[in-house]
């Protein structure tokens, strides 16, 4: 069993861990490894046990949501074969300024929008930034 006392987890978190564990076992992962992965997933998604008591270093709901979104984004990138740390031709070209707006990343578009002081840029998606900048 993974380290730590599981008494601080809610019933919902425990059910979620059991479900994830069963899923891993169906895919051929050993029972011990499946349980460890399941609890790691629950911790990643919810920030750990949610019942009162414990370490006292709780994440806000907003921070938890941001972590889940970031985790999902990185997982989607890895499924596509992209690595967030890999340098691509488009990112190196955009630094030299010889690329179109459509080839830029959202972060690069956000920087251009910041330079042009475009209102509402922080809530814009990439396609909205493209329209606002062009």
From TrEMBL:
Compositional bias of kind Basic and acidic residues: 15-36, 64-83, 104-134
Residues of the signal peptide: none
Residue ranges, compositional bias (Gly residues): 46-55
Chain segments annotated as transmembrane: none
An annotated GO BP: DNA-templated transcription termination
Low complexity compositional bias, start-end: 86-98
Region (Disordered): 1-134
Occurrences of domain Rho termination factor-like N-terminal (ranges): 101-131
Top-level taxon of origin: Bacteria
InterPro entries: Rho-like_N
Protein name according to UniProt: Rho termination factor N-terminal domain-containing protein
Organism per entry: Stutzerimonas nitrititolerans
């Amino acid at each position: 069993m993974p380290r730590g006392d599981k008494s601080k987890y809610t019933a919902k978190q425990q059910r979620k861990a059991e479900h994830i564990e069963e899923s891993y076992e169906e895919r051929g992962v050993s029972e011990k490894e499946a349980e460890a992965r399941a609890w790691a997933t629950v911790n990643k998604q919810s920030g750990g046990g949610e019942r009162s008591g414990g370490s006292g270093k709780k994440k806000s709901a907003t921070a938890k949501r941001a972590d889940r979104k970031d985790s999902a984004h990185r997982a989607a990138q890895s499924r596509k074969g992209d690595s967030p740390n890999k340098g691509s031709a488009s990112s190196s070209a955009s630094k030299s300024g010889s690329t179109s707006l459509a080839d830029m990343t959202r972060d690069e578009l956000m920087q251009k929008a910041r330079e042009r002081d475009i209102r509402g840029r922080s809530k814009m998606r990439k396609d909205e930034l493209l329209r606002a900048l062009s």
